[in-house]
Structure formats: C-alpha cells, structure tokens
Amino acid sequence: MRAFNDLPLPWQRVFELEWSSVCNGSRAIAAVITDENGSIISEARNCTGERLVPNPKTAHAENAAVAALDTAVYPELWKYRLYAGLEPCIMCMGTIVMGGIRHIEIGARDNYGGAMGLIDTFAFASSKNIEIIWRDNEFGDIQRAFQTVRELLYCSDKQKLERIIGDFSQLNACGVEAAQKLEREGMFRSRPLTELAAQEVYDRIAEAVDLSR
Fold first, then answer.
1. pTM here?
2. 179 phi and psi angles, rounded to 5 deg
C-alpha cells in the first residue's frame, strides 16, 4: 500500500481533514473540490460531533464543501472534481447534483448510507451525466480504518459499536482490523490525538493493512 506522501495531493488533504474531524469528535469523513488544473478550491470536513451550526446533524463534508465553493471566483462548475472519502449520503448527493459538480472520486463505498446509486433513478440528476470514479480497496481500507478509529475512541455503546464495525467490515475488513490493532497497541491513547499528524496515522494504518492481507 502506498505511503501518504505518494498519494495525490487532494487525497492527502482529504485524510488530513478526516483526522482533524476525529480529533474534534466528529466523523472521519471529508471532501475537497479541485479546479480543472487540480488545485484545491474548496474543502470541508464532517462536523456532526461539534456545535458549529444549530443542527450539527447536517454538518456533512460534501454538503459544506459545495456550499463553500465561491462561484463568483470559480464559475465553471462542470470542470471541477469533488474528492469524497466516503460515498456521499442522500443529502450530500443532492447537494452535489444541484451544486453543479459533475466529476466525483470516492474512496470507499457505503452500502448502508451511500446514495450515489440514486442518481440514475431521477431524470434530472441522470441528465447531468455525472462522472463517478470509485477508488480501489486501498483507499476504502484506509477510509474505513479512519472511521473505525473514531468509533473506537468515542462510541461508548458497545452494541452500537459492534453494529458499526460490522457494517464497515463488510467491504473493508482489512482496514477495520488495522485500526483495531493500532488501538489495542495504544497508539491513539498514549498521547493527545492532536499530537498525532494525519500522515503518521495514515502510514501506520497502511502498514497494518498490508500485514493483515
């Protein structure tokens, strides 16, 4: 599995933002938008565990990244690409379609809450000819590992945690196992989370995923 520094820059930023979400108690999900030259022009992370908006349940990464894109400065929306760590939910899928983004790369499939398959069920959305690129399990395992770390650290309901881990494991068991291994070894409790850089977390997870395969 490739190291953090070998990732395309947009994906590096996705995982940096996801680790920031974990450090703040939110879900490990993030999104960035690039222009036609690959430069990042908007970004956001999940903030559902924080009180940054009156209803934090709506503080999803893709929704916020599209909303924050300044169309006065970047008007050619159809040329831009959104990178999403996890398959967007129905709310974020709708925002992507209505917000004018036509190219999407997704790190991990979400067979529980993902909604990209719904695009083809609506004539309006289908007419937009949205390109969706699904990254391979290398990205999926890392994405689900970051999410697993978050749940292991913050979810106190053992039954709920078991269900969540089971869901993550359906498609990305290696990533889940890697995160559990690092948690058992004390990586995330031996020092404050903010002292761990996203690159270090990513590279340790990548090593553990390679060992579990």
1. 0.97
2. -65, -40
